[in-house]
Structures are given as C-alpha cells and as structure tokens.
Amino acid sequence: MRTTVIINNLQCENCKNLLDTEIQKVSGISNLDIDIATKSISFDYKTHNAMEGLRMHLKAIGYPITKDPSIIKEDLKNVNSPQKEKVVTNK
Predict the structure, then answer these.
(1) What is 2-73's CATH number?
(2) pTM (2 d.p.)
C-alpha cells in the first residue's frame, strides 16, 4: 500500500538525509520519496506492523508523524457520525 504522511520537523536537506537513512532501517517500507517543500514522506508499506514500526521509529528519532491518512479518516468518521446522547432516567 502507498501512503503519504506529514512530518512538521522536516525542514532541510540534513533532515531529509537523516530520514532517508533511518527509514531504510525499518522493515517493510520501500519506494521512499521525501519532499522538503511539502514536509511529506511518501512510501509503500507491506503491513500494518511496518507502518506502526515506522511511526514509532520516527517518533523515537524526533520526527513524529503529524498527519497521516488513518488519523484523517478517523477524524472524518468522528465528525460525520451522529453523536449518541446519554439518556438519564429517574427511577
């Protein structure tokens, strides 16, 4: 699967080089494309575990993912779903 995530700390060529080196250490991640201008990283991942491994590794080295499709989808689901109200009855 291919996805793109946003890394707010991605600001310069040194950041890009570090991320390129570090992401290559994560199993199941391939076809990496890092764009400093948009602060985005696009890549293919084989499994959910590979994606979670990448997320944890990036956070550990100081480059946490700030936006990714799963967060955006979850936000939209919460906004679009009707809120259930609690009904309190007196007995």
Answers:
(1) 3.30.70.100
(2) 0.72
